[in-house]
Amino acid sequence: MTDSPRRAPVTRAGATPAGRRRLRRALAAAAVDLFVAKGYEATTVDEIAAAAGVGRRTFFRYFEAKDDVLFANHDEIVAEMEETFAAAGPDRDPVEMACAAVSLVLDSYAAELDVSLKRFTLTRTVPSLRDKEVATVDRYQRVLARYLRARFAEQGDETASLRADVAAAAIAAANNHVLRRWLRSGGQDDITASAAEAFALVIDAFRPGGASEGPETTVVAVMTTATPLHAVIAKVNAALAEK
Amino acid sequence: MTDSPRRAPVTRAGATPAGRRRLRRALAAAAVDLFVAKGYEATTVDEIAAAAGVGRRTFFRYFEAKDDVLFANHDEIVAEMEETFAAAGPDRDPVEMACAAVSLVLDSYAAELDVSLKRFTLTRTVPSLRDKEVATVDRYQRVLARYLRARFAEQGDETASLRADVAAAAIAAANNHVLRRWLRSGGQDDITASAAEAFALVIDAFRPGGASEGPETTVVAVMTTATPLHAVIAKVNAALAEK
Prior knowledge:
The structure is a homodimer.
Chain A: H1 17-38, H2 45-51, H3 56-62, H4 74-87, H5 94-111, H6 113-125, H7 127-154, H8 160-184, H9 191-205, H10 229-242
Helix pairs in contact in A: 1-2, 1-6, 4-5, 4-7, 5-7, 5-8, 5-9, 6-7, 7-8, 8-9
């Protein structure tokens, strides 16, 4: 072994990043099961640690408090979002990019259906866990807003900061709407289809320069050139008013 | 006195709704001063109660916990929002109505500049208070979403629930943006002007049927009727593409 003797001691399960990730997930799964079985308040950190096969001190190496364990992979997802933004080309529409980044949250929920469903029950029934979840979403939202603010400012938008805050909130809300719908269906709902619908609504709403630039506003005016000009204009106006 | 002898005992300051409101505010103001002066964690409920001239038991008649005191008039504002919605005519645009209701939050902050500024410092520096604030905003947002969902559904919108969640989040974010900007300016910023700008952005984004129905998308096509039809169409298309 050529390791420096001053290297920090490594715990068995936490030796590698993958091992640490596994242990975090094991602690989260054990916690969720205990919270559902005996109640959130009645469950102790010692019980969670024991159920995951580790000690109390190991638990606190991974989480600051009992209520953090429910959103175990929050930091991971935030880091992946930042990587997605860093890797994005400058030509991608900022709102589309932010939707792509936030869908990492959907992926992470979909990858662990059982834990996700139990957590959903808990956040609906335990107010402090509900508050914790809301705070977690707020952190994602701030990551989105920071990215959008920079991109909108590059595009010369004088209201970049306002627009970024509003769009980030809309994107997070669309994401949560899809997530809740999917969880209520017990994971049966087509999450990809509802995500596409929800993100399309947001992308449309925050299209740069307003929706008037999109292809949706192309007006097809049917007219014959024999009609006098004022009548053509009247017909065009009537068609526009009818839309 | 003709009061029933079974009537619950009344505390001196809490006899009337107005008196209760005054005492809530006094407790909140005392708490904010103590939190700023000696730190949130170090301040006890006993100290807050004493500073407002009441006992510990009175404090707990008004607030469930120490961290509730910072958002003392939350319930009042939510009730006023509900009244605003109940009184609104069916012809008012739902998103405009929701913006009008959420601006009650701005009014309440503006009415108590000193407390608002101190609370702003606290929520930026104490993570648990920041989380509490986020949870408070989430509750306003759910009130807005419920109203919008009902109104959008009345309008026959099949995506009423999604649209309501997204619009409510956008409105709350616009409101918070204005509030933070005003607080950062020490209450000097023109809160009415920035609120008008922020709400206009949201109303525009969530205009029913997309911005294509608004007057902004009226296309003025200048053409002579002697021009052949295909050339007219080509000119119209070119004009639309240029917009």
